[in-house]
């Protein structure tokens, strides 16, 4: 959209205060930019915590046999790696982006509920700390997998109730964040910013927020049932009392499948924001992007049993969930087509954000294809619980969500800090990541097809070679991410020293309101709403 | 922020919180819904919970069905649990009795419940038990060994495609369960 900003608020009125000084600024802040920054920094730290756990896993799997950790701790690592990455890294990173960018993209002065915003961040920190504290408890951290399947999870030691309460806190935090996003988008848009004019990132987050409100309470209910089964003699999942463990899987995946889209829909939004800027064309098929996002969100609620093809479903159930799952490929295909069509005959340049976005389109498609393979119920019996599924969901999360988070970092860092990042090191970071992520995850397809099960600390000798390759890729990928930390710190401190313009990227101001405010973005933006001139989509 | 906007936000938040609370309830509503769906699709059908009266069938001497027996205990149940034979060949319509044995290897009394399971699930309605230790909670004195006969019949109406039926029992320790 084209926007005319009537009045920049870089010349503050006297009563307009800047940030407080010292640590209290961060503890009590209600400013969407401060909270966004805290979310982003927190998720980056968690990315390295979860990454360290992944490297412990890959170090143990470098060779067959048991080398470094005992099997119990290994299982804790697979469980905690997943929980930290899902609830500590990827989800908060997107909430951070939402906090920073949604008000600036729709011309709002702040989020609708600033105090709740602060609370949901600190609740997240408390939840993750509670989760992490289980690592030091008798009986060890949860080790039955992040899915918490009973009856296995009921054998967890003292950690069990703490893990359940941590999930409750993370759930409440996510729900508050989601309510805030919805209230901001519904009530705070600048005049003229109609729903169908919003940038795709805002649209995808709106839909994601509704998903979160619908699913997090269901997950909270499922873990509460586990808790009462363990401590209060209920029998939701206990066969002795007439319950059924398979019921847990149904409830969990009713949450779990939309949950994976919570991590991918905002990814789609950022990709749809970045690709048009560097292709110097409007986004191809804006309306179809919105409808495709809605369709994917709807379908996510009716396909959950494709995670459980092997538990013994009726044939009609297998068929229904198989066909419904295959349907998801259609709206997803629309999106991939639109991104490609946006780039088609565009005057493309390949700065780091664009490189990560293109890699996302290619590698996410690959992850999508393996998903399509597993949607076929008869084939899934072979892939189930093997390294093939591990390869599949890591392709849809690492070179997709994480790559796009990196792209978003590079794309908006100049706006956040007012400095340009070091493009050379950025490109080095990209190429190292793009090559190593494939060395890391591609061989896992072969391992899975050859029959290597997931979540085991030791394996048969015939899997040795590809595991070694995968582990080498893991360490390459892990350590190259330190470059990103270096770049972020370097950019905050002044970067290349080059003064960045308000629009930063050539022509970006046609693509989003955030590029019409000064760089760095002042503490308060759009105190007076901008006037959004109704034009065609960019 | 204007008063009007504050009110608008508060109203929306209220609605969204209600949605979240309803979804929490929905998670629990899935529990009875699951039983209904399982019954409709014949999966995981609620197994026979009490004895059937013995009724006369025409014995089909020409047909043989293999009935297999599987015994197991849940992780912490202190029972040695076995069956006299792992499988027998039966004629549909004829009554058979098979003995199961369980011994408490603890020096304290225990209470345990056996949970049956029949595979394939759709054959369940043709497999009738006249007598079974699974119909009630079993009490074992210290080191007591029990012989527990199971009397059953396979209904001759069992469709031809079923050649083998597996009957499995798992004992769960309910000694410390306050509900009993």
Automatic annotation (TrEMBL), chain A:
Q: Where are the transmembrane segments?
A: 39-59, 79-100, 121-142, 162-188, 200-227, 260-279, 286-307, 319-341, 353-373, 393-413, 425-446, 466-489
| Top-level division of the source organism's lineage | Bacteria
First-listed, main subcellular location of the protein, grouped into a coarse class: membrane
- Heme as UniProt keyword: yes
- Location(s), subcellular: Cell membrane; Membrane
Q: Which InterPro entries match?
A: Cyt_c_oxase-like_su1_dom, Cyt_c_oxase-like_su1_sf, Cyt_C_Oxase_1, Cyt_c_Oxase_su1_BS, Cyt_c_oxase_su1_dom, Cyt_c_oxidase_su1_bac
Q: Which GO terms describe its molecular function?
A: cytochrome-c oxidase activity; heme binding; metal ion binding
Query: What's the protein's topology in the membrane?
Result: Multi-pass membrane protein
Reactions catalysed: 4 Fe(II)-[cytochrome c] + O2 + 8 H(+)(in) = 4 Fe(III)-[cytochrome c] + 2 H2O + 4 H(+)(out)
* Residue ranges constituting the Cytochrome oxidase subunit I profile domain according to the UniProt record: 20-533
Any one cellular-component term (Gene Ontology):
plasma membrane
**Per its database record, what is this protein's job?**
Cytochrome c oxidase is the component of the respiratory chain that catalyzes the reduction of oxygen to water. Subunits 1-3 form the functional core of the enzyme complex. CO I is the catalytic subunit of the enzyme. Electrons originating in cytochrome c are transferred via the copper A center of subunit 2 and heme A of subunit 1 to the bimetallic center formed by heme A3 and copper B.
Family named by the database record? Belongs to the heme-copper respiratory oxidase family.
Q: What is this protein called?
A: Cytochrome c oxidase subunit 1
Q: Which species?
A: Methylomonas lenta
Automatic annotation (TrEMBL), chain B:
Top-level taxon of the source organism: Bacteria
Query: In the record, what terms sit under GO molecular function?
Result: copper ion binding
Q: Fetch the InterPro entries from UniProt.
A: CtaG/Cox11_dom_sf, Cyt_c_oxidase_assmbl_CtaG
TM helices/strands, residue ranges: 12-34
Q: What Gene3D superfamilies would the database entry show?
A: Ctag/Cox11
The record's subcellular locations are: Cell inner membrane
Which Pfam family is one of those matched by this entry? CtaG_Cox11
Q: What is its main location?
A: membrane
- How is this protein situated with respect to the membrane? Single-pass type II membrane protein
Keywords, ordered alphabetically: Copper, Membrane, Signal-anchor, Transmembrane, Transmembrane helix
* GO CC, any one term: plasma membrane
What PANTHER family does the record point to? CYTOCHROME C OXIDASE ASSEMBLY PROTEIN COX11, MITOCHONDRIAL-RELATED (PTHR21320:SF3), CYTOCHROME C OXIDASE ASSEMBLY PROTEIN COX11-RELATED (PTHR21320)
The record's similarity note reads:
Belongs to the COX11/CtaG family.
- Main role? Exerts its effect at some terminal stage of cytochrome c oxidase synthesis, probably by being involved in the insertion of the copper B into subunit I.
Instruction: Spell out the protein name for this chain.
Output: Cytochrome c oxidase assembly protein CtaG
Protein species of origin: Methylomonas lenta
């Amino acid at each position: 959209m084209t926007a005319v900003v009537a009045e920049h608020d870089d010349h503050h009125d006297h009563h307009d205060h800047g940030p407080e000084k010292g640590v209290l600024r961060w503890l009590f802040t209600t400013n969407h930019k401060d909270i966004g920054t805290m979310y982003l920094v927190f998720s980056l730290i968690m990315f390295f915590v979860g990454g360290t756990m992944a490297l412990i896993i890959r170090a143990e799997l470098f060779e067959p046999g048991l080398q470094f950790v005992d099997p119990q701790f290994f299982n804790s690592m697979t469980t905690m790696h997943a929980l930290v990455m899902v609830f500590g890294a990827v989800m908060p990173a997107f909430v951070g982006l939402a906090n920073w960018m949604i008000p600036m993209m729709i011309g709002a002065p702040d989020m609708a509920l600033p105090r709740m915003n602060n609370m949901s961040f600190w609740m997240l920190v408390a939840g993750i700390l509670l989760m992490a504290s289980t690592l030091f408890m008798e009986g060890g951290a949860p080790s039955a997998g992040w899915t918490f399947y009973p009856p296995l999870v009921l054998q967890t030691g003292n950690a069990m109730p703490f893990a359940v309460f941590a999930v409750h806190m993370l759930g409440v935090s996510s729900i508050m964040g989601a309510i805030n996003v919805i209230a901001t988008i519904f009530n705070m848009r600048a005049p003229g910013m109609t729903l169908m004019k919003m940038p795709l990132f805002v649209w995808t987050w709106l839909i994601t927020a509704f998903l979160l409100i619908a699913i997090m309470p269901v997950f909270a209910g499922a873990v509460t049932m586990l808790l009462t089964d363990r401590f209060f003699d209920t029998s939701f999942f206990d066969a002795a009392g007439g319950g059924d463990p398979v019921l847990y899987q149904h409830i969990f995946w009713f949450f779990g499948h939309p949950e994976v889209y919570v991590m991918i829909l905002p990814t789609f939004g950022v990709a749809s924001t970045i690709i048009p800027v560097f292709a110097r064309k409007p986004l191809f098929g804006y309306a179809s992007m919105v409808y495709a996002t809605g369709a994917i969100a709807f379908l996510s609620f009716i396909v959950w049993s494709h995670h459980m093809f092997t538990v013994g479903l009726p044939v009609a159930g297998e068929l229904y969930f198989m066909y419904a799952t295959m349907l998801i490929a259609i709206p997803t295909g629309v999106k991939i087509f639109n991104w490609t069509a946006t780039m088609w005959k565009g005057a493309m340049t390949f700065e780091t954000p664009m490189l990560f976005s293109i890699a996302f389109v290619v590698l996410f498609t690959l992850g999508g294809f393996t998903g399509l393979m597993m949607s076929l119920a008869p084939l899934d019996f072979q892939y189930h619980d093997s390294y093939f599924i591990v390869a599949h969901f890591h392709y849809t999360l690492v070179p997709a969500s994480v790559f796009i988070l990196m792209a978003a970092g590079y794309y908006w860092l100049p706006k956040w800090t007012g400095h340009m990042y070091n493009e050379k090191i950025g490109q080095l970071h990209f190429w190292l990541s793009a090559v190593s992520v494939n060395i890391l995850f591609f061989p896992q397809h072969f391992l899975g097809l050859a029959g290597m099960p997931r979540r085991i600390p030791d394996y048969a000798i015939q899997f040795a070679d590809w595991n070694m390759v995968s582990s080498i890729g893991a360490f390459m990928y892990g350590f190259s991410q330190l470059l990103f930390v270096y770049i972020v710190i370097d950019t905050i401190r002044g970067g290349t020293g080059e003064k960045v313009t308000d629009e930063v990227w050539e022509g970006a101001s046609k693509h989003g309101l955030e590029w019409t405010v000064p760089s760095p973005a002042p503490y308060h933006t759009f105190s007076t709403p901008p006037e959004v001139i109704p034009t065609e989509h960019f | 922020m204007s008063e009007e906007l504050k009110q608008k936000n508060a109203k929306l938040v209220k609605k969204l919180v209600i949605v979240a609370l309803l979804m929490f309830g929905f998670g629990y509503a899935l529990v009875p819904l699951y039983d209904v769906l399982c019954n409709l699709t014949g999966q995981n059908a609620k197994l026979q919970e009490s004895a059937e009266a013995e009724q006369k069938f025409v014995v089909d001497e020409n047909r043989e069905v293999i009935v297999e027996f599987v015994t197991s205990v849940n992780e912490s149940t202190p029972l040695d649990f076995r069956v006299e034979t792992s499988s027998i060949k039966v004629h549909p319509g004829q009554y058979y009795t098979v003995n199961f044995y369980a011994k408490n290897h603890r020096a304290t009394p225990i209470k345990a419940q056996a949970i049956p399971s029949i595979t394939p699930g759709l054959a369940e309605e043709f497999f009738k038990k006249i007598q079974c230790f699974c119909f009630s909670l079993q009490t074992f004195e210290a080191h007591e060994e029990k012989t527990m006969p199971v009397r059953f019949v396979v209904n001759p109406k069992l469709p031809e495609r079923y050649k083998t039926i597996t009957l499995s029992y798992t004992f769960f320790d309910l000694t410390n369960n306050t509900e009993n």
